[in-house]
């Protein structure tokens, strides 16, 4: 051996990485491990978490009712910061909603077998995050009862939407994304729902799972079309996921405001979305795999691979932060220059440096293998990244607006208690949905994980 | 074993992928058509072993994608360019690039929906009932066992032969499946529930349809008065927000203009090009070689794209716009035209700083010092021009008094030609600018878009200033000419001036 320091165990690890399914790993065990979660009473922590989430969801409902009957003046949005927290929260949530489709579609096309452990989970996260995201533009229009104007529906005014507005592109992109993510997720669920149906002990479970399993029997002629449809949806969802956050970034980039009007926004936003989405997957997967006994299916190797993605995308957004400053200087435009100096050293410098520390510096610890495989470290970093990515949207939105061209209009944006209640409340909505999913649906794609085991492959053919 | 007619078919159970692959090949070779393998996950190689042909699903997806894209284009074109045309800052009413995102999303949406639903339909799903689902052993088909079922309706099916085939194929168990007695439809309460639910969904639609075709005399219901009655400024009304009712506020006392972190009043000539309301006639700094070099460099970066390297107004942006025949495009000025060449330096500086016509101001991208450098460079650039009036830079005034015998009225007209911006579009040297040159206009024959012609006499010129759109000369765009407010005497002077340019 050229390098005597490599032990034979490490060499084995390089040649043949640890299996994606740990433990006994036969087909029946996989079925049992995942299905059991939906069949037995959940741990106490689930009830505590669910009660808490429901309470926060109630607060969200109250905040929205108060908003609608009073008007958007209850928020902190005011000139010059007309786009405040609602947009920040929208972009934050829709960004998180990118990891699921990326994991299920892009990694599928690249034949990354490790996606199977986490794809169901992160697709669910995607859908719930997009639900939270979609809420913000809907409630921030003020007159929510005319929200249907954003759709091309014939109306009494004989008017049509302005299709050249990026805000309308957003409507189409986000609603298409939600629809396609939901179809993709549900299609993946059907064979697993059939598994739960066939394991059902009570009539009512059999009936309900049976309805949603659509009569799936696992016939090979069905699997054949199913797999082809899955591949097609993956191929469609891949450009879609890249387009959605690009379109979201157009909301900013097509304006002429210094700090927003930059061509780097679409790739920068997409990288940030993947970054925040993966961080959220780690944040959710770490407690879930412990709480529901899924350690053999969501292994340390899965988490380590995700940490690598987090580190890579973290450096991409770091590059974008630096490039924005470079372009502001290189353009020679004094307003552009002022905006960026104001961003890093102005009244919101604290937010800017929180963003940089959380997003650029904290993931650097993943250069060390020990840190990538340490549960406490990755959990803390993933929380940091979530915080940092929220602040990124805050910094982009608020610091570009708060000091506009007319110094007499400069103002310091502060959120009101309704802003806070809506932001925190959106987490209530997210976790309520997510905990219901954990309780009643298979958290791991049973059939897909089975395909990653030796039991799914012919041995005589090799 | 019961009678074949009452059997659904025969079911064989296997434990591993290898077993089912070899068994499937045997059943295929025996010539069966109505049979299938049941596996807990997709088994690769089973399609070949069974002889399953590739599905046509991708073609459906492709068709749906094309439909979605076409509908996306058609919808946007019809809604935004035909039925309700949107005019947005002079942009074309129909332009493909701005419509691409929605076409893309529609393509994906249609393809995905079609893929999803077509897959279930082709698979004969959803189905309430499977003849195999009541078998206890078959429950493991979604867990860890593999099955082959051959239907009794298959022409090659015979009880003994098929059973022997499956046993020989290595099945761990083989059983006949009786035609189940259970109902093939969902329970009655479920069907009724679905029907009631579907009917209830029609209620809101009915209400909307009723409201759509009925009017009411009742006043509007104000659910949220805060949103309906707001204190705000409305056009042509007094503002309720200020005591004096004015919406446009004047500057607060003690407001001073700033430029480059300096008070403008420290050196108004340098910062604005004006001193005491008069334009500076000379640069506020000595013209040096460095200044000219700097001016040239800044000119090439900031000005040349439109005005061209030689300043003749033929930059690449203009050439491109001309080749596209963009409606409403106002060409960049030839900087060597008389009216520009004679402008005081301060006026040139002001035009660069705050913009003129459709040219934006450059005070944010070019520093004050550099803007003066560009003004200095323009003079040098003018000196390189050879032909006639183009050598005018720095040699104001153009028309030396007494050189041409002009009546006071014509002289006043010439002045108005400059100050009332006629000069921007109408040249005096016969060159076709945005519009007709005034040189030789009087007395010539004009051809109009409606096919008629007229001789340009005093009455015609007078009318053209009064109502520019009354008659449009062929090849020109209506609505482009905007006349600044002028008095009758001024119009008279302008007409006299234009008549004086009659060619002999």
Identify the notable features of this structure and list them briefly.
heterodimer, A: 462 residues, mainly alpha, 17 helices, globular, B: 504 residues, alpha+beta, 4-stranded antiparallel sheet, two-stranded antiparallel ribbon, 12 strands, elongated
Explain what this protein looks like in three dimensions.
Chain A has 462 residues and is mainly α. Chain A is 69% helix and 0% strand. The longest helix of chain A is centred in the middle third of the chain and has 34 residues, at 166-199. The mean pLDDT of chain A is 89. Chain B is an alpha+beta fold. Chain B has 17 helices and twelve strands. Chain B has helices at 17-29, 46-50, 57-83, 96-122, 159-168, 188-212, 225-228, 268-272, 289-302, 304-307, 316-324, 338-341, 345-354, 368-383, 408-419, 458-466, 488-500; strands at residues 7-14, 35-38, 146-151, 173-178, 258-259, 262-263, 274-275, 278-279, 355-356, 359-360, 445-447, 453-455. The interface between A and B is large, with 81 and 77 residues.
Give a short summary of the structure.
The complex is a heterodimer of chains A (462) and B (504). Chain A has 462 residues and is mainly alpha-helical.
Draw up the topology in text.
The complex is a heterodimer of chains A (462) and B (504).
Chain A (H helix, E strand, L loop, with lengths): L7 H8 L11 H13 L4 H27 L14 H12 L2 H11 L5 H26 L25 H34 L3 H11 L6 H34 L11 H27 L8 H32 L2 H12 L3 H13 L7 H4 L2 H27 L15 H24 L5 H6 L11
Helix pairs in contact in A: 3-16, 4-6, 4-10, 4-15, 5-6, 5-9, 6-7, 6-10, 6-16, 7-8, 7-9, 9-10, 10-11, 10-15, 11-12, 12-13, 13-15
Chain B lengths: L6 E8 L2 H13 L5 E4 L7 H5 L6 H27 L12 H27 L23 E6 L7 H10 L4 E6 L9 H25 L12 H4 L29 E2 L2 E2 L4 H5 L1 E2 L2 E2 L9 H14 L1 H4 L8 H9 L13 H4 L3 H10 E2 L2 E2 L7 H16 L24 H12 L25 E3 L5 E3 L2 H9 L21 H13 L4
Antiparallel strand pairs in B: 1-3, 1-4, 2-3, 5-6, 7-8, 9-10, 11-12
Helix pairs in contact in B: 3-4, 9-14, 13-14, 15-17, 16-17
């Amino acid at each position: 051996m050229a390098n005597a320091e490599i032990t034979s165990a490490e060499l084995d690890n390089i040649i043949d990485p640890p299996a994606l399914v740990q433990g006994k790993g036969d087909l029946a065990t996989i079925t049992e491990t995942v299905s059991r979660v939906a069949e037995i009473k959940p741990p106490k922590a689930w009830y505590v978490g669910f009660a808490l989430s429901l309470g926060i969801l109630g607060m969200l409902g109250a905040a929205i009712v108060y908003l609608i009957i009073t008007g958007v003046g209850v928020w902190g949005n005011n000139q010059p910061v007309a786009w405040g927290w609602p947009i920040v929260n929208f972009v934050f949530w829709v960004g998180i909603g990118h990891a699921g489709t990326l994991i299920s579609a892009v990694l599928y096309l690249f034949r990354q077998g490790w996606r199977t452990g986490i794809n169901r989970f992160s697709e669910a996260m995607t859908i719930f995050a997009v639900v939270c995201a979609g809420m913000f533009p809907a409630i921030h229009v003020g007159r929510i009862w005319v929200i249907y104007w954003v759709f091309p529906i014939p109306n009494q005014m004989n008017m049509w939407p302005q299709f050249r507005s990026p805000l309308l592109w957003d409507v189409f992109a986000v609603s298409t994304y939600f629809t396609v993510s939901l179809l993709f997720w549900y299609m993946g669920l059907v064979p697993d729902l059939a598994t739960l149906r066939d394991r059902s002990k009570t009539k009512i479970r059999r009936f309900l799972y049976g309805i949603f399993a659509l009569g799936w029997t696992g016939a090979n002629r069905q699997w054949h079309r199913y797999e082809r449809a899955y591949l097609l949806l993956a191929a469609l969802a891949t450009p879609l996921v890249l387009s959605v956050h690009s379109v979201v970034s157009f909301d900013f980039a097509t304006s002429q405001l210094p700090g927003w009007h930059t061509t780097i926004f679409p790739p920068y936003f997409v990288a940030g979305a993947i970054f925040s989405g993966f961080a959220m997957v780690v944040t959710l997967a770490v407690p879930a795999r412990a709480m529901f006994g899924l350690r053999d299916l969501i292994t340390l190797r899965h988490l380590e691979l995700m940490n690598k993605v987090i580190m890579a995308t973290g450096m991409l957004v770091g590059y974008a932060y630096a490039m924005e400053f470079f372009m502001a200087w290189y353009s020679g435009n004094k307003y552009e220059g002022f905006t960026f100096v104001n961003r890093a050293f102005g009244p919101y410098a604290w937010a800017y440096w929180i963003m940089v520390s959380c997003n650029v510096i904290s993931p650097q610890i993943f250069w060390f293998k020990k840190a990538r495989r340490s549960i406490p470290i990755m959990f803390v970093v993933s929380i940091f990244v979530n915080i940092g990515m929220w602040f990124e949207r805050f910094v982009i939105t608020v610091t570009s607006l708060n000091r506009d061209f007319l110094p007499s209009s400069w103002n310091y944006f502060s959120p009101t208690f309704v802003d806070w209640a809506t932001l925190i409340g959106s987490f209530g909505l997210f976790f309520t949905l997510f905990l219901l999913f954990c309780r009643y649906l298979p958290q791991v794609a049973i059939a897909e994980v089975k395909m990653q085991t030796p039991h799914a492959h012919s041995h005589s053919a090799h | 074993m019961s009678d074949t007619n009452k059997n659904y078919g025969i079911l064989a159970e296997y434990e591993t992928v290898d077993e089912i692959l070899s068994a499937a090949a045997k059943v295929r070779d025996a010539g069966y058509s109505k049979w299938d393998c049941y596996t807990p996950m997709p088994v690769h190689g089973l399609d070949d072993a069974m002889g399953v042909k590739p599905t046509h699903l991708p073609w459906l997806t492709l068709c749906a994608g094309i439909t979605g894209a076409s509908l996306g284009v058609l919808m946007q074109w019809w809604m935004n360019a035909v039925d309700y045309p949107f005019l947005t800052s002079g942009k074309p009413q129909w332009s493909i690039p701005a419509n691409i995102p929605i076409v893309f999303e529609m393509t994906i949406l249609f393809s995905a929906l079609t893929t999803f639903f077509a897959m279930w339909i082709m698979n004969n799903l959803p189905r309430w009932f499977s003849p195999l689902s009541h078998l206890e052993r078959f429950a493991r088909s979604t867990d860890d066992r593999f099955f082959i079922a051959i239907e009794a309706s298959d022409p090659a099916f015979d009880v003994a032969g098929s059973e022997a085939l499956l046993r020989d194929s290595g099945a761990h168990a083989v059983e006949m499946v009786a035609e189940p007695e259970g109902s093939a439809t969902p329970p009655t309460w479920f069907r009724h529930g679905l029907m009631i639910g579907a009917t209830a969904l029609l209620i809101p639609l009915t209400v909307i349809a009723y409201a759509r075709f009925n009017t009411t005399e009742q006043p509007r219901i104000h659910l949220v008065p805060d949103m309906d009655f707001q204190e705000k400024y409305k056009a042509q009304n007094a503002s309720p927000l200020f005591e004096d009712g004015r919406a446009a506020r004047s500057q607060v006392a003690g407001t001073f203009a700033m430029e480059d972190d300096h008070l403008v009043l420290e050196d108004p000539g340098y910062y604005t090009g004006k001193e005491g309301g008069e334009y500076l006639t000379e640069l506020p700094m000595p013209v040096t070689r460095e200044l000219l070099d700097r001016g040239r460099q800044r000119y090439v970066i900031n000005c040349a794209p439109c005005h061209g390297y030689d300043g003749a107004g033929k930059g690449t942006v203009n050439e491109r716009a001309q080749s596209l025949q963009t409606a409403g495009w106002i060409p960049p000025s030839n900087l060597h035209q008389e009216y520009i060449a004679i402008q005081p330096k301060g006026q040139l500086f002001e035009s660069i700083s705050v913009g003129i016509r459709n040219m934006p101001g450059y005070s944010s991208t070019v520093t004050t010092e550099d803007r003066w450098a560009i003004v200095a460079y323009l003079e040098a650039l003018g000196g390189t021009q050879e032909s006639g009036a183009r050598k005018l830079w720095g040699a104001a005034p153009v028309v030396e008094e007494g050189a041409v015998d002009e009546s006071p009225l014509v002289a006043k007209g010439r002045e108005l030609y400059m100050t009332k911006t006629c000069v921007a579009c109408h040249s005096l040297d016969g060159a076709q600018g945005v519009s007709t040159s005034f040189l030789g206009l009087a007395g010539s024959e004009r051809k109009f878009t409606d096919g008629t012609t007229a001789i340009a006499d005093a009455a015609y010129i007078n009318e053209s200033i009064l109502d520019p759109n009354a008659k449009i000369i062929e090849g020109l765009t209506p609505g482009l000419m905007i006349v600044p407010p002028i008095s009758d005497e001024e119009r008279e002077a302008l007409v006299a001036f234009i008549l004086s340019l009659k060619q002999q």
